[in-house]
């Protein structure tokens, strides 16, 4: 049996739908989870959000041992957290860094990701629906690895 895809969300994403809708839209985190579950189809999916850096790191460690792929939106920790980057460096499977907004069109602090150099792929600017695209891409990456 294929291990689940883990979808991990960082700080403030629990406020989706309310927080800066002109940037992040009106989709809630519960709706994002539904998008991910629909895209996962019959593939198991673990979906989580935390505002705590240590919790995100613990979940990355868990994903290292018990997942087939990882989709992570580290939010603000993308640009500040060496510990999150170090944990992700250990991740041995397909890994997508995801951002709802196009971080490159935003303030300069959002232009330098610590996560991108260790990710398999980066997706940004596709809005909340992009989570579904990312989950589907991870399913394909896992299938390609299994076929190789």
TrEMBL record:
One of its GO terms (molecular function) is 3-dehydroquinate dehydratase activity. GO terms for biological process: amino acid biosynthetic process; aromatic amino acid family biosynthetic process; chorismate biosynthetic process; quinate catabolic process. Keywords: Amino-acid biosynthesis, Aromatic amino acid biosynthesis, Lyase. It comes from the Bacteria. Coiled coil: none annotated. Substrate binds at residues 73, 86, 100-101. Pfam families: DHquinase_II. The record marks 19 as: Transition state stabilizer. Gene3D superfamilies: Dehydroquinase, class II. PROSITE patterns: DEHYDROQUINASE_II. Pathway: Metabolic intermediate biosynthesis; chorismate biosynthesis; chorismate from D-erythrose 4-phosphate and phosphoenolpyruvate: step 3/7. Its EC number is 4.2.1.10. It catalyses: 3-dehydroquinate = 3-dehydroshikimate + H2O. The active site is at residues 24, 99. Catalyzes a trans-dehydration via an enolate intermediate. Homododecamer. Belongs to the type-II 3-dehydroquinase family. This is 3-dehydroquinate dehydratase.
